[in-house]
Specification:
Elements lengths: L1 H5 L12 H6 L11 H6 L29 H4 L8 H16 L53 H17 L13 H6 L7 H17 L5 H25 L4 H17 L4 H16 L9 H18 L39 H14 L12 H20 L3 H22 L5 H25 L8 H16 L7 H8 L5 H15 L5 H23 L10 H7 L8
Organism: Cladophialophora bantiana (strain ATCC 10958 / CBS 173.52 / CDC B-1940 / NIH 8579)
GO cellular component, one term: nucleus
Subcellular location: Nucleus
C-alpha cells in the first residue's frame, strides 16, 4: 500500500501555460514569447484567452482544437458601415446620453450641439437664438438623404425645415426638440410606411414658412401646395390599404401645422378632428409605450386640442346634460381631472376610454414642455375649458371655482420656488415661458367666469408681458402664442398696448402665416373696445370685449400655438 501511494506525486496545476500545451495537457515551461514545446513541434504559441463566438440561439462551436478566427472571417457576410456613418451614430449616442432623464429646468451647458443629419449642421455663424454653441470638432458629412435621390428643391426645403421650422416649433431651442430629431428621422426612414407622406408634409410646411419669409411668396406657395397635395394622396393610400398606426397621426399633425403656417384660418381644425378619429382607432395598441415618435405626436394632439378649445365660444361646443362636455369633433379634447372639480351625472364609455388614454399620455416625462408649460398649468386651462361647457347646463358652482383657483395659486407658488433656482440659459427661457402661462391662465380664468374688465386684470396683463419682454430681450426664440395673445387682447393702456405691439412685431418675424390673422384679431378687439368707450363715455379699461366673438363674427379660426 505504501509503495502504491508513492506512485502518485503531488502536482500543482496552473492555468498560465500556453493555449496549445493546455489543450494537449502537457507540461509548458511558459517561456515568452514561445514556449519550448511549441518551438520544438513548430506550433503557433499563444497565451491569450480563447474566445468562442456564441450564436443567436445560444450555442457555440465545439472543437478539440482551438480555431483562430480573423476579423475578416468573423464578420464575413456582414456589410461594413461607412466610417462617416459610424461617427454619425456615435455622435447621436453621445447626444442621447447627455439629455437622458433631464427635465426642462436643467442647465444643459455641457450638451454637444451637433446632430446626426447633414442638413442639421449650421455652416454659417450661429444665430442669436441658438442656446447651444456649435462644436468645431463635429463636421459630419454623412448624407441621410442620398438613398432618396432628392431634387435640389427637396434638399433645400428639408434643410430649411431642420434649421428653421423645427427650431421655432418650440418656444426655445432644446436638445429634446422632437421636430428637430424624431420628425426628420421618421421622414427619411425607409422602413416606415409613412415615410413618403411625412417627408412631403415636412417639405410643405417648410415651403409655407418660406412663403412668409421671402419676396417670392407666390412661387413658394405653389411649391408648398404641390408637396401638400402629394402628402395627402400618399396618406389616403395608406389609410385605404394599410393597417392604422401611430405614425399616421404624425403625418396628419404635420399637415395640420402646414395649414397653420400657410395662414389658412379654418382648415387646420379638420385635420385635428381627423387626428382624433385616428387616435380612437389605434389607441388600444398603446403605441406611446414603444414609440417615442408616437408619444410626442399624441402629446402634441392633446396640447393642440386643449389650446384650440380656448378660442371657441360656449355655444360652439357640444354639451349634452348628463355627459361630460365634448368638442365639436365628438371626442373629449381636454385633460383628465381626477380632482373632483368637474362632476357629471354619467359618462359615456367613449369618454371614459378617452380620459384613460389621455391620462397615460399626460403622465409621460415633461408633458407640456414643448409649448413651454407644465402638466399642472395645462390641466388648469383644461378645467376652465370644461367648466365653461358644463356651466351651459349645470350653472355656477362656487366650490368648483375655489378649488380651481387654489390649484392656480399652487402653480404660482411653484413658479416662485423655481425663481430661486434659475441659472442657465435653458432654465431662464423655460422660466419666462412658464411664468407667462401662469399669469395668462389667471386672465383666462377671470374673463371666462367673472367677465372682469381689463382694468381689473391689469396686474396680470403687466406680469405676462414682463415675462414676454424678458424672453424677447434674451433672444431665446419663438415665444408661445397663447399666453401673450391672452394678455394682448386685454391690453388697454398705452403701456400694455406698446408691450403687445413689440411682441407682435417679433412674433411676425418667424414666418407663420396664421399670425397675420392673430394680429388682426387683436387690433379689432382694441378697436371695438375704443369705440364702445367713446360711445358710452367710460374708460377703455372698463370695457370688456370678448375676442372669441370677434373671430366668430369674422367666421375665422386661429390656433394659438
Amino acid at each position: 500500500m505504501q509503495n502504491r501511494q508513492c506512485l502518485y506525486r503531488q502536482r500543482d496545476r496552473t492555468f498560465t501555460g500556453c493555449r496549445n500545451c493546455r489543450q494537449r495537457k502537457v507540461k509548458c515551461d511558459e517561456k515568452q514569447p514561445r514556449c519550448s514545446t511549441c518551438v520544438h513541434k513548430s506550433l503557433l504559441c499563444d497565451y491569450t484567452a480563447t474566445l468562442v463566438w456564441v450564436k443567436d440561439d445560444g450555442s457555440h462551436d465545439v472543437s478539440f482544437w482551438r480555431r483562430y478566427r480573423s476579423c475578416e472571417e468573423t464578420w464575413k457576410g456582414i456589410p461594413v458601415l461607412d466610417l462617416k456613418l459610424v461617427d454619425c451614430l456615435i455622435s447621436q449616442c453621445d447626444l442621447d446620453q447627455a439629455v437622458k432623464s433631464e427635465g426642462v429646468f436643467h442647465v444643459f451647458s455641457q450638451t454637444p450641439a451637433y446632430n446626426p443629419f447633414t442638413a442639421f449642421r449650421v455652416d454659417g455663424p450661429v444665430s442669436g437664438n441658438a442656446l447651444l454653441p456649435l462644436s468645431p470638432l463635429r463636421r459630419l458629412d454623412y448624407d441621410p438623404l442620398s438613398w432618396m435621390s432628392p431634387t435640389r428643391e427637396e434638399r433645400l426645403l428639408f434643410d430649411h425645415y431642420v434649421k428653421h421650422v423645427a427650431v421655432i416649433m418650440m418656444p426655445f431651442e432644446h436638445p429634446r426638440n422632437p421636430w428637430k430629431s424624431l420628425y426628420p428621422a421618421g421622414a427619411i426612414d425607409h422602413t416606415l410606411k409613412t415615410q413618403k407622406p411625412l417627408f412631403n408634409a415636412l417639405l410643405a410646411q417648410a415651403a409655407f414658412n418660406m412663403a412668409h419669409l421671402t419676396v417670392s411668396r407666390n412661387k413658394s406657395m405653389e411649391v408648398a401646395s404641390k408637396y401638400y397635395g402629394s402628402s395627402i394622396m400618399q396618406l389616403r393610400e395608406i389609410l385605404m390599404n394599410s393597417e392604422l398606426c401611430a405614425n399616421t397621426l404624425t403625418v396628419v399633425l404635420t399637415l395640420m401645422m402646414a395649414e397653420v403656417y400657410s395662414g389658412q384660418s379654418r382648415s387646420w381644425r379638420h385635420h385635428l378632428q381627423g387626428a382624433w378619429g385616428l387616435f380612437r382607432n389605434f389607441r388600444a395598441q398603446i403605441p406611446w409605450i414603444d414609440s417615442e415618435l408616437a408619444c410626442v405626436s399624441l402629446q402634441s394632439l392633446f396640447i393642440i386640442s386643449l389650446v384650440g378649445d380656448t378660442s371657441r365660444l360656449d355655444d360652439d361646443l357640444v354639451a349634452d346634460k348628463g355627459e361630460l362636455a365634448q368638442s365639436e369633433s365628438g371626442y373629449t379634447t381636454s385633460l383628465p381631472h381626477n380632482n373632483g372639480i368637474i362632476e357629471a351625472d354619467t359618462e359615456s364609455s367613449a369618454t371614459l376610454q378617452d380620459q384613460e388614454s389621455v391620462s397615460m399620455i399626460t403622465s409621460t416625462l415633461d408633458f407640456g414642455f414643448t409649448i413651454g408649460a407644465t402638466q399642472e398649468i395645462l390641466d388648469c386651462i383644461s378645467c376652465i375649458n370644461d367648466m365653461n361647457r358644463v356651466n351651459k347646463w349645470s350653472g355656477l358652482n362656487v366650490n368648483n371655482y375655489r378649488t380651481l383657483l387654489g390649484r392656480l395659486d399652487a402653480c404660482r407658488a411653484s413658479l416662485a420656488d423655481k425663481s430661486s433656482r434659475v441659472g442657465g440659459v435653458l432654465d431662464k427661457a423655460a422660466y419666462y415661458q412658464l411664468g407667462a402661462f401662469v399669469a395668462a391662465t389667471y386672465i383666462y380664468f377671470y374673463r371666462s367666469f367673472f367677465d372682469l374688465s381689463p382694468m381689473e386684470l391689469h396686474t396680470y396683463i403687466v406680469e405676462t408681458f414682463s415675462y414676454v419682454n424678458f424672453f424677447i430681450s434674451g433672444n431665446y426664440g419663438n415665444f408661445s402664442l397663447w399666453p401673450a395673445f391672452i394678455a394682448a387682447v386685454e391690453a388697454y393702456s398705452d403701456e400694455t398696448m406698446s408691450m403687445a405691439r413689440e411682441w407682435l412685431d417679433t412674433a411676425m418675424s418667424f414666418g407663420l402665416g396664421s399670425r397675420v390673422l392673430v394680429r388682426k384679431v387683436i387690433e379689432e378687439t382694441w378697436r371695438r373696445r375704443d369705440i364702445i368707450s367713446r360711445e358710452i363715455g367710460i374708460d377703455k379699461g372698463l370695457v370688456a370685449v370678448d375676442w372669441r366673438r370677434v373671430i366668430k363674427d369674422w367666421d375665422v379660426d386661429v390656433l394659438l400655438v
